[in-house]
Amino acid sequence: MQIKTLVPTALAVTATAVLGGLASRPAQSAWYAKLKKPPYQPPRQAFPIVWPVLYADIAATSAATLDHLEQRGQDQERRAYIAALATNLVLNGSWSWLFFNQRRLGTAAIAAGVLAVSSADLTRRSIAVQGAKAAPLAAYPAWCAFATALSTHIWALNR
């Protein structure tokens, strides 16, 4: 993996993490504490462990995928991957703003579902290029699918 590819992907992922983190600050608010949550809601401490690992995986796997595409001269596929990654990161950061800041639980649940699909697509693209080396990225859409179920359940409990 080339540093010239890793730095931009890491910066994009870090920006997403920071923006999402800023939006998630209301997770400690009275409003969030009063929400009814399903019994399978992970403890608050799980999120600052899971997300950095996923973000690091997104950055590293994406950089390696982009490098492979560049080495193969697949410029069109490389541009498509960059567009898919950018879209995914916008969706990723948007969820926190929708849920915590705007308190739009239904919209956030839908956004989580779209993020899960986008994450699965990103994983599919990476595996198509790198094979099993990109398989760890599958944890990302799995987590997003879980987040979709959780968001939807919170929305249903608090309508």
From TrEMBL:
GO terms for cellular component: membrane. It is found in: Membrane. It is a multi-pass membrane protein. Keywords: Membrane, Signal, Transmembrane, Transmembrane helix. Residues 1-29 form the signal peptide. One of its GO terms (biological process) is tetrapyrrole metabolic process. The keyword Transit peptide does not apply. It holds the Pfam family TspO_MBR. This is Tryptophan-rich sensory protein.
